[in-house]
């Protein structure tokens, strides 16, 4: 029996994970920019919106780091020719949702 040829699907999936990670990094940098702008606007004093933006920036950075770890774990699983565990995919989904929520919070707090 010959081994199954996966075709280009694994490569397309890897590219999608990279695009998602890049989009999260861009979102992180915009959240951090909003936070630093808020701090500069308030003259270095911690205002209510600055605290919220700081929390959003920290949550987004942590979630992006978690997604990066999920990508590394997924790639290691694929190198061993195993499917990634469901926990990796659930964790990645939670990280993406966290960055989305932090982005929405920064938009609301930055106005």
UniProtKB/TrEMBL annotation:
Keywords attached to this entry: Membrane, Transmembrane, Transmembrane helix
Membrane topology (UniProt): Multi-pass membrane protein
Pfam families referenced in this protein's UniProt entry, alphabetically: DUF202
InterPro entries membership: DUF202
Ranges for domain DUF202: 5-69
Domain of life: Bacteria
Subcellular location: Endomembrane system
Chief localisation class: membrane
Name of this protein: Uncharacterized membrane protein YidH (DUF202 family)
Transmembrane regions: 53-72, 92-110
Species for this entry: Pseudarthrobacter niigatensis
GO CC annotations, alphabetized: endomembrane system
């Amino acid at each position: 029996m010959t081994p199954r040829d996966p075709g280009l699907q694994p490569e397309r999936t890897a590219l999608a994970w990279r695009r998602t990670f890049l989009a999260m990094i861009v979102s992180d940098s915009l959240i951090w920019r909003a936070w630093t702008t808020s701090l500069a606007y308030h003259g270095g004093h911690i205002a209510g919106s600055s605290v919220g933006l700081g929390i959003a920036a920290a949550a987004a950075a942590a979630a992006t780091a978690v997604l990066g770890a999920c990508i590394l774990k997924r790639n290691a699983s694929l190198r061993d020719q195993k499917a990634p565990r469901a926990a990796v995919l659930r964790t990645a989904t939670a990280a993406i949702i966290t960055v989305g929520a932090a982005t929405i919070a920064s938009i609301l707090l930055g106005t």
